[in-house]
Design brief:
The protein has 228 residues and is an alpha/beta fold. The chain has eight helices and twelve strands. The strands form three sheets. A five-stranded parallel β-sheet has the order 2-1-3-4-5, with helices on both faces. The chain has a four-stranded antiparallel β-sheet with strand order 6-7-8-9, with helices on one face.
């Protein structure tokens, strides 16, 4: 969304200059910070429609900064830039509250595509939340919350991504590979146990409505069903 404010937090000066010039050329309002402490201060003082931040930074790393930003604004989209590539590092970022990540080195065009996608989905110009009725529950994709009667539970990023795919295909099998790509951007054998673990957590979250089941279609994927 043109005119949106981007907080870009990065300690590499040359990269900051290149990215800032490119984003401003695309019509974005960009404010910058060179470390996590400065980034947090800038967010408190000026706000932002999206935060793009490096993970490894002096004074305060990106993960710590993100935790503090999440306390101030649970909904602002966060995109991490990281030279790390292990699933544990990526998972830590998502569990803190990241909405996406991009590995260094990256193409500027891909960064722009990801920023646009996050602003469309989570940005302040969004007109309405996306919700799915699931039996007696309501799943709000935008806020990543699952509501039952007067109670609301905040799902983790991974749980919400998986449930979104299942809820959009109630009564249909969603391929396990599709779920892993939606969550981790890749299908690897090492992710299958993690996927099953998150499915188990979702079953527990949905247990109060006995008509709801998440069925393991062995060798294919998972299917969310609601019996009459």
């Amino acid at each position: 969304m043109m005119g949106s404010k981007i907080l870009f937090v990065e300690d590499e000066e040359d990269l900051t200059l290149i990215v800032t010039d490119t984003l401003r050329g695309q019509g974005y309002d960009v404010i910058t910070a060179a470390d996590g402490i400065e980034g947090l201060d800038k967010f408190k003082a000026e706000g932002a429609d999206i935060v793009v931040a490096d993970v490894m930074m002096p004074k305060m790393d990106g993960f710590t900064m993100a935790k503090e930003i999440r306390k101030l604004s649970p909904a602002v989209p966060l995109l991490f830039l990281t030279a790390k590539s292990t699933i544990d590092d990526v998972e830590q970022g998502f569990e803190i509250g990241a909405n996406d990540y991009l590995k260094k080195p990256f193409e500027l065009r891909e960064l722009i595509v990801r920023i646009k996608a996050l602003l469309r989905r989570y940005g302040t110009n969004r007109h309405e939340d996306v919700e799915y009725p699931i039996g007696a529950y309501t799943f709000n994709v935008t806020t990543q919350t699952l509501s039952y009667e007067d109670e609301s539970t905040e799902l983790s990023h991974f749980e919400a991504k998986i449930l979104e795919r299942l809820a959009a295909n109630i009564g249909k099998t969603v391929d396990a590979s599709e779920l892993m790509i939606a969550v981790w951007q890749r299908d690897e054998p090492s992710n299958r146990n993690s996927l099953h673990g998150y499915i188990h957590k979702l079953r527990r979250e949905l247990r109060r409505d006995r008509s709801i089941s998440i069925i393991n279609q062995r060798g294919f994927g998972y299917m969310l069903t609601i019996s009459n």
